[in-house]
Amino acid sequence: MKRILALVLSLVMVFSLAACSSGGDTETTAAPETTAAAEETTAAAEETTAAADETEAAEGTEAAGGDTSAAQGMNVGVCIYKFDDNFMTLYRQELQSYLESEYGATVTIVDGKNDQNEQTNQVQNFITQGVDVLILNLVQASSTEVVANMCKEAGIPAVFINREPDEAEIQRWVDEGIAATYVGADARQSGTFQGEIILETENKGDFNGDGVVSYAMIMGDPENIDAQYRTEYSIKALEDGGMQVEKLFEQRGDWDQTKGQELAANALTQYGEDLEVIFCNNDAMANGAKVAIEAAGRVVGEDIYLVGVDALDETVGYVAEGTVTGTVLNDHVGQSHTAADVAAQMVSGQTVETKYTVDYVKVTQETAAEMAAE
Ligand code: GAL
Q1: Ligand 1 atom closest to the CA of 88, numbered from 1
Q2: Which of 144, 208, 209, 283 is geometrically suited to a Cys-Cys bond with 315, CB 3.0 to 4.6 A?
Q3: Atom of ligand 1 nearest to the CA of 85
């Protein structure tokens, strides 16, 4: 079962990569890449079951490049928007260990402390040091143009991660021949999955039977497209599923657990029994909201629903026991491995796609129990 799931996930990833290939303008070897990836994916899926499903799924991206032996021992500079972020902590740890084990890389990771000026200085320092490639989780996606130009001037390839630049900027890389790429996930999918999780409950999010889902939205940093799309598409999925909705509350919690708890507590105090669903743009905030829900004497699954995104271990445990309704796996393993592989391909002088996306996976009580048991 696990193997089948891994294979399905892997193939989904291969197809999304293939879709990106055909959409890009700069591509060279899309078809052979896809074939090679499919072969390797099958092999990966048939291997032992020791690795987690998402790790096996990530194998599909490994084969996407040609010979990367020139990247062995490469010097990689990594900028993270801030270290104090649950999901990006998992991401950077996985990125470092994979770069070291797969490519014998020297990896330096710096903390942008959520300050774009500080981070831009850090990029400049890496350029001065002459790193071979930069992997960049910018504080502000709107600074991508400035940073991409700095890298271009210095002749250093740039792999942007996690915070998706706008389409016009990605097109500019193509038009101006800038060696840059983006590796992430399509946040619309994660929002849609959140909405679907609510639709799949027995009352579709409508506890009081008035025909309307009355909800609170606890957002991440609204500058970030992940926050924008999750907010929009979770509700769109409910509406597409035939439900009427009423937004009672929407505030930014900046991806932070403490803020998530405070905001959920405020929403619960303000709206009481009328509040039927709390959507959180990520799991850290959902973990906070869970505490607030319990403190307010409400019971998830009985009189309120709660969903997040990321599939942090702690949250998957809550989903398994039913104290959080569901979450969505944000595959930090697949994303970090793809970012590392693409960085190695660029260091080896290969032309790469302008965008790579890794699929999200819905996590409900049924699948969470399986994940938690592993
Ligand atoms: C999102 C993730 C959040 C947060 C954010 C940072 O993809 O779901 O938890 O880490 O990235 O940009």
Answers
A1: 10
A2: 283
A3: 10
